[in-house]
Design a protein that fits this description.
about 130 residues
Length: about 130
């Protein structure tokens, strides 16, 4: 009986999986943002891949940092794509979260899960380093 109470009080691994608490976490580096977000959801020929893609923004490895950090958006030149240490005012986050002041549609077309957006937010918050 005590064992059952401990199991219920502490939860089970199934409980953790259902709530998403066991989601894999990644250090907020550009390498992880590239691999976990851009490569999987953005850097395709029809989006932000070869040839510059949508908004003349290529998010391919090796060029994504230079194309994002401190660069004005083609869609809204009053917005900066990534402002180091300022995710709330970075246009990339606004596009990913579907903010009301964005031009065109939120991106990517299939919304990212909260963990992936948080990874990008954390990378920007830590200075948007080319790491």
């Amino acid at each position: 009986m005590i064992e059952l109470l401990l199991l219920v009080a502490c939860g089970t691994s199934a409980d953790t999986a259902e709530t998403g608490d066991s989601a894999e976490t990644f250090a907020p580096t550009l390498t992880n943002v590239q691999e976990q977000v851009f490569d999987k959801s953005c850097a395709f020929s029809t989006c932000h891949g070869e040839g510059g893609g949508s908004g003349e923004l290529s998010l391919l490895p090796g060029v994504s940092h230079a194309n994002l950090v401190g660069v004005a958006s083609d869609g809204d030149p009053t917005q900066t794509r990534v402002i180091p240490a300022d995710p709330d005012n970075s246009y990339l986050i606004k596009k990913m979260e579907g903010a009301s002041d964005i031009v065109d549609d939120p991106m990517p077309a299939v919304p990212l899960d909260a963990d992936r957006i948080q990874l990008v937010r954390d990378w920007i918050a830590e200075g948007a380093q080319d790491n």
